[in-house]
UniProtKB/TrEMBL annotation:
Residues 4-62 form the Tudor domain. InterPro entries: ERG24_DHCR-like (IPR001171), Lamin-B_rcpt_of_tudor (IPR019023), Sterol_reductase_CS (IPR018083), Tudor (IPR002999). It is a multi-pass membrane protein. The gene is Lbr. Its EC number is 1.3.1.70. This is Delta(14)-sterol reductase LBR. Residues 53-110 are annotated as: Disordered. Pathway: Steroid biosynthesis; cholesterol biosynthesis. Belongs to the ERG4/ERG24 family. It catalyses: 4,4-dimethyl-5alpha-cholesta-8,24-dien-3beta-ol + NADP(+) = 4,4-dimethyl-5alpha-cholesta-8,14,24-trien-3beta-ol + NADPH + H(+); 5alpha-cholest-8,14-dien-3beta-ol + NADPH + H(+) = 5alpha-cholest-8-en-3beta-ol + NADP(+); 4,4-dimethyl-8,14-cholestadien-3beta-ol + NADPH + H(+) = 4,4-dimethyl-5alpha-cholest-8-en-3beta-ol + NADP(+). GO terms for biological process: cholesterol biosynthetic process.
Length: 616
């Protein structure tokens, strides 16, 4: 194994990816497996570089050229003063001297033009938001408002020089050695670009989240216990927090028939997902540079599911069967998610290094099992994580809510469901349909781009979403709550406000990521970053850093208000959701600071509030 050349903390010169420019960087770590150095630029940007792209600072000291070692007078004195037979006459010598002066003038023109070219390139790169700017990488101040006028003037001034350079390139005065050297530099640059994806091979996860190994170990047990506790509490006549429910017999948690129904539901959604309908889109680039393809047909799957449920109701199938065996369905989902997590971890042990998750490659079994070791586990073209994110749990959420509505009508002998139940079903149906309609936006979320697929996401998608997010509807079946029409109207307005903030903020972000040059987004200002992306500082994203989280929390409150104020249990969802989004915001803050460096600090100065304006 070759030994490393540069030590941690050493200040060296690192080449910026895709260019031949070197900048002062500091070595932070070294990956013995991938043989890559993690270096930090002055603006806080961290990149992984090969050893061949790093040089010591001493190699950049100015050295005298060999051609200047002897002066022209010394070289001429060594020659014979007598004129050789082939030596030109005096007049011809004078013309030769003039010729040399013309050549010197041409060479000077070439040098001036070549010096002007990088200035023009930097100007053009600065004027285009989507291009990289070498000045901003090094933390130099810049304006967030782009102005192309100065760039146009400079381009007009340099146009004659560019024309001269074009003519001189046709009659090159450079030696073959210089031409060969230029070709070698060009080929070296091409080879550098070709291997660029290799530089982003995930390294070992150093910063552990969720309380590290001990925290993740506890959560593997506490999360299922929390689900069962909430469901048992809803079954009680007095669901107070201090009124602990009696623990039923363990045999009552399991039913083979219920588990078979759960498997049938999972397979049915998988079949809908595999249907060759809907468009196919590419996700964000992976560390290897490859882009995975995803079929966007979640809304079609929802329509097919609604049609299947309609057929079952027409055949007089008792859908409130879900309510009667709700605890057994939750136990089946827990068992299935645990088995799926074990399978995911075992298969991840054979996955290539570049396919591992950035946040789940710590080397600790419990931590990697919980957070997910492999980023995008697939069986052929079937992406397991992407499928579980929206299909079985999210669509199952709507089906369970419908089952609770029918159970309320049957248990309380109602001809129509209560107003509270209608509001809860309607609000949450809108949320699910919106997520499926905008399914493509999921590809840019942290769940897809950063988190691996392990117990955390498997349990969250298959257990937590369908059995905790339906808590309000499940609560209303056993604890009916009557609300007036004015109260219902006020709650509806509150939900509409939250949904408008949530949807418009997400649409603004997604449209800007998809096409920053869209004329519809011309009024938006942004801060350029070293990654080529921009950080919006106007619109909703100039109001708070996570306006979509703000809209989410407002909607969560609207979903709980129809349950009244007799017990805090139906408000568990909004309390949990605030804690979840505050924690996720902290994770986003940490990752964005590492990714964007100085640009993120400037963004935080422009937008000081994280989620709640003037509060947090």
């Amino acid at each position: 194994m070759p030994s490393r050349k540069f030590a941690d903390g050493e200040v060296v010169m690192g080449r910026w990816p895709g260019s031949v420019l070197y900048y002062e960087v500091q070595v932070t770590s070294y990956d013995d497996v991938a043989h890559l150095y993690t270096v930090k630029y002055k603006d806080g940007t961290e990149l992984a570089l090969k050893e061949s792209d790093i040089r010591s600072q001493s190699s950049f000291k100015h050295r005298k050229s060999q051609s200047s070692s002897s002066s022209p007078s010394r070289r001429s004195s060594s020659r014979s003063r007598s004129r050789s037979p082939g030596r030109p006459a005096k007049g011809r010598r004078r013309s030769a001297s003039q010729s040399r002066e013309q050549k010197d003038d041409k060479k000077k023109t070439i040098q001036e033009t070549s010096l002007a070219l990088p200035v023009l390139v930097l100007c053009i790169g600065f004027c285009k938001p989507s291009e990289n700017n070498t000045k901003r990488y090094n933390g130099e101040p810049e304006s967030t408002e782009k102005n192309a006028t100065s760039c146009t003037i400079l381009e007009q001034k340099l146009k004659p020089d560019l024309e001269i350079k074009h003519v001189l390139e046709q009659y090159s005065l450079r030696s073959r050695r210089d031409e060969k050297k230029k070709e070698e530099i060009y080929s070296e640059k091409k080879s550098f670009v070709a291997v660029k994806p290799v530089e982003k091979v995930p390294t070992k996860t150093k910063e552990l989240e969720f309380g590290g190994r001990i925290g993740t170990f506890m959560m593997i047990f506490l999360l299922p216990v929390t689900v069962f506790y909430l469901l048992l509490m809803c079954k009680q006549d007095d669901p107070s927090l201090l009124n602990f429910p009696p623990l039923p017999a363990l045999e009552s948690f399991w039913d083979g028939k219920v588990f078979g129904v759960f498997l049938l539901w999972f397979l049915l959604q998988a079949v809908f997902h595999l249907l060759p309908i809907g468009k196919v889109v590419e996700g964000l680039p992976l560390s290897s540079g490859r882009k995975l393809q995803y079929r966007i047909n979640g809304f079609y799957a929802f329509i097919f599911t609604a049609a299947a449920i309609g057929v079952l109701l027409y055949l007089q199938f008792e859908l409130h069967y879900l309510y009667d065996h709700f605890m057994q369905f939750a136990a089946s989902a827990v068992a299935f998610s645990l088995a799926l997590s074990i399978y995911l971890y075992v298969r991840s042990l054979k996955a290539p290094e570049e396919e591992l998750a950035p946040g789940g490659n710590s080397g600790y079994f419990i931590y990697d099992f919980f957070t997910g070791h492999e980023l995008n586990p697939r069986i052929g073209s079937f992406d397991l994580k992407y499928f579980c994110e929206l299909r079985p749990g999210l669509i199952g959420w709507v089906v369970i809510n419908l089952a609770m509505l029918l159970a309320e009508m049957k248990i309380h002998n109602l001809s129509v469901p209560s107003l509270s139940m209608i509001l809860v079903n309607g609000f949450q149906l809108l949320y699910v349909v919106d997520a499926l309609w905008n399914e493509e936006a999921l590809l840019t979320t942290m769940d897809i781009t950063h988190d691996g697929f392990g117990f955390m996401l498997a349990f969250g998608d298959l257990v937590w979403v369908p059995f905790v997010y339906t808590l309000q509807a499940f609560y209303l079946v056993g604890h009916p709550t009557t609300i007036t029409w004015p109260v219902a109207a006020a709650i509806t307005v509150l939900n509409c406000i939250g949904y408008y903030i949530f949807r418009s903020a997400n649409s603004q972000k997604n449209n800007f990521r998809r096409n920053p040059a869209d004329p519809k987004l011309a009024n938006l200002k942004f801060i350029p970053t070293a990654t080529g992306k921009g950080l919006l500082v106007t619109g909703w994203w100039g109001f708070v850093r996570h306006p979509n989280y703000l809209g989410d929390i407002i909607m969560a409150l609207a979903w709980s208000l129809p349950c009244g104020f007799n017990h805090i249990l139906p408000y568990f969802y909004v309390i949990y959701f605030i804690c979840l989004l505050v924690h996720r915001e902290a994770r986003d803050e940490h990752h964005c600071k590492q990714k964007y460096g100085l640009a993120w600090e400037r963004y935080c100065q422009r937008v000081p509030y994280r989620i709640f304006p003037y509060i947090y």
